[in-house]
Amino acid sequence: MISLSDSQKIGMGLTGFGVFFLFFGMILFFDKALLAIGNILFVAGLSFVIGLERTFRFFFQRHKTKATVFFLGGVFVVLIGWPIIGVVLEVYGFFLLFRGFFPVAVGFIRRVPILGSLLNLPGIKGLVDKVGESNTMV
User: Fold this and answer.
1) Using CA atoms, how far apart are residues 80 and 84, in angstroms rounded to an integer?
2) pTM of the entire structure?
3) How far is it, in rounded angstroms, from Cα 40 to Cα 23?
4) How far apart are CA 128 and CA 115, in angstroms?
């Protein structure tokens, strides 16, 4: 089992609550208060899990400038009160930031018994193959 430090455990909790609040805020028709809380918790949890220095290095790499601007700009737009536009910007920035991770995630999910079968369904297979083939999804 992977051992986590106390700050990483706190970060996992903050990130989990952040994702929950983001999801719940979208279900409740883009409630700006829940989305704002979710954004703050997600970013804070990420910095607790991987550390402040690595968080800054991840977000502020030269080739990820566009993705960082969209993601953090979306967080800012949600915080000032335009939740739908902010979430669209965030989602686009999120996909740009984490596009290198998608092939790894798809490869892992394909090895999970039930989920692997779902990913091979005719309508889903083409999309999953496109996402999982490379990190040039733009």
Assistant:
1) 12
2) 0.80
3) 14
4) 12
> How far apart (Å, rounded) are the C-alpha atoms in residues 38 and 14?
9
Q: Are 97 and 106 in contact (CB under 8 A)?
A: no
Residue type, 123: G
Query: Two tokens at 8?
Result: 């990483």
pLDDT the model gives residue 135: 52
pLDDT above 60: residue 137? no
Which of 100, 79, 101 is closest to 32 using CA atoms? 79
Q: Backbone phi, then psi, for 87, in 5-degree steps? A: -65, -40
Question: Does residue 70 contact residue 93 with C-beta atoms inside 8 Å?
Answer: yes
Cα–Cα distance between 39 and 112 in angstroms, integer? Answer: 30
CA 26 to CA 3: how far, in whole Å?
Answer: 33
Q: Which amino acid is at 116?
A: G
Nearest to 43 by CA among 11, 84, 80: 11
Distances (CA, A) of 32 to 66, 67, 71, 84: 24, 22, 16, 9
DSSP state of 121: S
